[in-house]
Amino acid sequence: MSRGGSPRRRQMARTQPKITLSPSRDLPFDQLRLSQSNVRRIKSGESIPELAEDIARLGLLQSLNVRPILDADGKETDLFEIPAGGRRFRALERLVKQKRLAKDALIPCIVQPADRAILAEDDSFAENARREALHPLDQFRAMQAMADKGEDIETIAANCFVTPAVVRQRLKLASVSPTLHQVYADDGMSLEQLMAFTVTDDHARQEQVFEMLRTGYNMSPAFIRQKLTENSVRAVDKRVRFVTVDAYVAAGGGVVRDLFERDDGGWLTDPPLLDRLVDEKLAAEAERIGGEGWKWVEAAIDIPWSAGRDLRRIPGEDVPISAEEQERLTRLEADAEELSSEWSDADNVPDEIHASLEAIDAEIGAISDRPQIFNPAEIAIAGAFVSIEHDGSLRVERGFVRPDDEPKRKARMIAAWTPTPPRMPATPGMRRPWVAARPGRAARILTTRRKMQGSSRCPTASCRT
Questions:
Q1: I need a labelling partner for 171 at 20 to 30 A (CA). Which of 33, 55, 142, 317 fits?
Q2: Pick from 58, 75, 66, 70: which is nearest to 35 by CA?
């Protein structure tokens, strides 16, 4: 036998008929009818209204598959049935009913012969079952391409029938390292793991963490986030609350956010800058407190509990609450109780409600924590500690006398005196642990707010693929 096969086989190869595709025709819409041969019966995925809007904006991107309808004698009529393309037909029908499309508008169709040996159900099944959905990574890149060509997030969201939050998520996923994109495309990581890598924009760091974890036993999304943010500072850190994120950003600091999990404000990426801002603000507060006349002021992020152990505490006298303050306190409590009753059982409490409760709590604390009046003679020999509370508020503890500053004749130093108002106004919202606040007021509001925060669930935005 020769290398090219027998002469008869070569002849058969030359004479094998070529495939002939069905012709395309533009048919009036009012000549088209849905076919009972369409195998799609259950609604799935994109709705007809959304598809109609897509067709109105983009046009009909895929022709309808039709066959001539035969009369009782088996002859072709001027009507055509649609075994494949029923959803597109319903979307076009919706546009006609809305008078946005003429009822005799020409519709591009692939016309199959009426006597075709292949069943209409075969056409419908093939079109619906053999198409391949777009890979999620292709979706991310497609939206990135739209954004790169000038479309804003709101426009992309409207055109793709998703929310702006979903668009931001997909753009964030598109910004991950191309190396990790390829791993994801090759099924080397899950979508949830890819989401975790978005907490940093540093591709080198993303790849470094991936290489470090890929050979280990823990590649959970939570552990990935932990490793990527281990050199950052959480936005809920008391130092951040003390200086505020806005002040940190204004000084040139960066913040990264997690668009897929609740991140409580994200992570600050420049800890040295944060520390400098904290030191500067603490020094300014210490200078202000020192202006009240104290002999010394010691300021630090945290003051150890033993700092005042060997120091004498001088007594002070609370400034009485005024009638106006008492009236304001009553109104604040009523507002807090009203908000609590309205939102305490809600699954999702809006951020503005949390903000309102925090503002109420701060004002109640400012009124309830009464400023104190000290003997000027004792102020001259005593000092104060300045630190940061867990919630970021300033903590000032006044009235500590060091042993070296004790007068030789104490009676002379603490002679009879008449309390006078403090020379410096009290810091709004300042917490003074040694001042007995009115029982149950700020504490009750704070408990309400924490309860509501605990019941609130920020919905995790998942990428709809």
A1: 55
A2: 66
Determine what percent of the chain is predicted with pLDDT higher than 70: 83
Residue 415: DSSP 8-state: -
Residue 332: partners with Cβ closer than 8 Å, 6 or more residues away: 360, 363, 364, 367, 445
The edge-to-edge listing of strands for the beta sheet with 394-401 is 296-299, 383-388, 394-401, 312-313
β-strands 383-388, 372-373 pairing:
unpaired
pLDDT at residue number 424 = 43
233 touches 392 (CB < 8 A): no
pLDDT of residue 216: 79
Residue 11 pLDDT level (bands cut at 50, 70, 90): low
DSSP 427: P
Query: Chain-centre distance of CA 17, in angstroms?
Result: 60
Produce one character per residue of 449-458: b if its CB has 16 or more CB atoms within 10 Å, e if not.
beebeeebee
Residue 289's contacts (CB-CB under 8 Å, 6 or more residues apart) are 297, 384, 386, 396, 398, 424
CA distance 425 to 418: 19
**Distance, C-alpha 146 to centroid of its chain:** 22
Residue 425: pLDDT band with limits 50, 70, 90: very low
- SS3 state at 310: coil
Is the pLDDT reported for residue 458 higher than 70?
A: no
Q: What is the CA radius of gyration of the chain?
A: 37
**Cβ–Cβ contacts within 10 Å for residue 192, how many?**
15
Q: Record the pTM.
A: 0.63
> Averaged over 376-393, what is the pLDDT?
93
Q: Comparing C-alpha atoms, which of 246, 245, 250 is closest to residue 233?
A: 245
Is the model's pLDDT at 363 over the cut of 90? no
Nearest to 70, CA basis, from 78, 62, 59: 78
327 phi and psi angles, rounded to 5 deg: -65, -45
Rounded to the nearest angstrom, the gap between the alpha carbon of residue 155 and the centroid of all alpha carbons in its chain is 19
Residue 59 CA to chain centroid, in angstroms? 34
Mind listing the pLDDT tens digit for each residue in 88-107? 999 999 999 999 999 999 99
| Cα within 13 Å of Cα(285), Cβ side | 26
pLDDT band at 214 (very low <50, low <70, confident <90, very high): confident
Task: Report percent pLDDT > 90 for the chain.
Answer: 54
Contact 461, 376 (CB under 8 A): no
How far apart CA 439 and CA 384 sit, in angstroms, is 25
On the 0-12 / 13-18 / 19+ scale of CB atoms within 10 A, 361 is buried
Could you tell me how many residues make up the chain?
Answer: 465
* Sign of the torsion formed by the C-alpha atoms of 213, 217, 219 and 224: negative
Q: Where are the alpha helices (DSSP H) in 400-439?
A: 410-413
